[in-house]
Amino acid sequence: MHAFLSLQELELRDVRFDVEIPAGEIDFDGDIKQSSPLRARGVARLLNRSLGEIRVEGDLQVVMDAVCDRCLEAMRFPIEKHFDLVYMPAEEPAAGDEQEAGQAGIEVGYYEGGGLALKEALREVALLALPMRMICGENCKGICAVCGQNRNQRECTCTRQPVDDRWSRLKSFRAEVGPQS
Ligand SMILES: [Zn+2]
Ligand SMILES: [Zn+2]
Fold first, then answer.
1. Which of 34, 148, 151, 174 could form a disulfide with 141 if both were Cys (CB 3.0 to 4.6 A apart)?
2. Are residue 21 and residue 96 in the same domain, yes or no?
3. Is 91 in the same domain as 150?
4. Nearest ligand atom owner, CA of 70
5. CB neighbours of residue 126 within 10 Å
6. Is residue 134 part of a domain?
7. Domains of the chain: total
8. Which ligand sits nearest to residue 66's alpha carbon?
């Protein structure tokens, strides 16, 4: 298995990879965990010799476990993703490049040293495939802010005070201005 995509080798040939990485070998952030082996196959090639741009393209399959932002229950995300990433040497990240490539639908990353760890790239692919907001379902009612009950499981009887910041700010403003108004 090609764990490391070295520039040296990429200068000679395109590097094909076909890997299966068991859960636990890649560090994901906080509440996000890998719950199946991560499978990925594809090819890495040098895009532009003088600039050292490495393009990593392929398909990834994995099941991730995360936690719902609203109700904090565990939830499962099966990911099947075609990816196409470009990595540039970290030495001279040109301002604006990342944005431009992002607009073209290609993700850009940076690597240091003589090449790129494949695991690092696959970690990014899996994280990018997850939604920005983790919600177990559109109808998730979340957790009651008063008693902490998961309201998907049981409705509580707490009455929720509507909090309107604009209104309370207005009230304190009036108090400062005083009664002459
Ligand atoms: Zn939820
Ligand atoms: Zn409650």
1. 151
2. yes
3. no
4. 1
5. 23
6. no
7. 2
8. 1
